[in-house]
Amino acid sequence: MSRSIELHASAVRATLALGYDAAAASVEVPLARAQGGVLARDLSAPIPLPPFTNSQMDGFAVRTADLRLGGPAEAAITLPVSGMQAAGSAPSVLAPATAAAVMTGAALPRGADAVIPVEQVTPPSFDTDRIAISAAVAIGSVPGTFVRAEGSDVARGAVALPAGTVLGPAALGACAALGMGDTTTVTVRRGPSVLVITGGDEVLAPGEPLKPGAIHDANGPLLSSWLRDAGACSVTTLSVTDDPDEFSRRLRECVESSGVHLIVTSGGISAGAFEVVRVSLEREAQMWFGHVAMQPGGPQGCGQYRGVPVICLPGNPVSTWVSCEVFLRPALAHVWGCCAPPLWSSAVLAEPVRGLPGRTQLRRGVLETGAEGAAGNPAVRCVGGASSHLLMSAARANVLLRIPAGDHELPVGTRVHILPVHGGTIAQEAASE
Question: MoaB/Mog domain: from which residue to which, for each copy (predicted)?
Answer without folding.
Answer: 195-334
